[in-house]
Automatic annotation (TrEMBL):
Pfam families: PIG-L
UniProt-listed SUPFAM superfamilies: LmbE-like
InterPro entries linked to this entry: GlcNAc_PI_deacetylase-related, LmbE-like_dom_sf
Protein family per UniProt: Belongs to the PIGL family.
Disordered: annotated span: 1-22
Lineage, highest ranks first: Eukaryota, Metazoa, Ecdysozoa, Arthropoda, Hexapoda
Organism encoding this protein: Anopheles farauti
Assigned GO CC terms: endoplasmic reticulum; membrane
EC number from the UniProt entry: 3.5.1.89
The protein's name: N-acetylglucosaminylphosphatidylinositol deacetylase
Transmembrane regions listed in the UniProt entry: 72-91
Amino acid sequence: MIDVASNDDPNGSDSIIRSVPLTGPSSDKRWFKHEGADVSRTESQIPFSSAGYLDAIYNIVLSYLHETLDHIALVLLAYSLLCIVLYRVVVYRQRRWLVRRAHLPPCNRALLVTAHPDDEVMFFGPTILELRRRQCRVFVLCLSEGNHDRKGPIRRQELWDACESLGIRPEDITLVNATHLQDDPATEWKTVTIANQLLRQVESLDVELLITFDKEGVSGHPNHCAIYFATASLCLSGLIPSSCKVLTLETVNLCRKYMSIFDLPVSLLLSTNWVILNWKARRAVQNAMRLHNSQMVWFRKLYIVFSRYMVINSLREINKSDVEFEILDT
């Protein structure tokens, strides 16, 4: 807007033309338009910056995960190759100059003590085959006939068939069918009762090696654990002859339990006594386990395929001092 103002100067100079800013509605509208554009531009920049920041973090994390997974895959691949090579070296080599396939005390007569029919194959199959390979006579003492599902007579016959397939004579199998030693996780097996059964067999058979569960019972079954504590009580009381060594089957964690031959390096490093079967002997143990047909539910079929106890047994020799420490630690 141009304002023409007259000059009141008495000297009569020309009029002065001044530029006056517009203050009408149109100017206000234009000013708000520019201001709104600035505000909208600022608001649009804020979410854009946040999105970019989050996107950068996401890319960094994703890159880190990819790199970590690559490293894990390489480590697993290297460990798997190590296990396979070590297994072939231990089992199939001709000269025993590195690691022996089995490391057990020498003996001519051994007693295996189990709680139920199928324990002898499910857990101790490799040990039985190794002892039989050494021409050691193996006796089996099974403290119940596995009548929890009312299949006692069937499981009795399955026990005889499985033991025979592993090279154990029928006359070397003793199956206890006592009312106070029934197959039931809820039933407490008395230590004194089990100890009497064990001592009777050890003395009458004149065995040099006694093999049974450790205090965890491999599967945690109370009947398995009860056998260990009965054996421990005999060790503490000095009733087991000094000529008889006691070996307990080591319980491993759930991950190691189902690693098959891939648990081999750990077993060799942590165990003092072990047995490692070749693939042919492993199939023999699996076939013996399948003879317990009444127990072949789906999870036992998976167990046969993946369990380390089908191919590896690691055992620990116990004595009086070891037992005292373990009982105090329990």
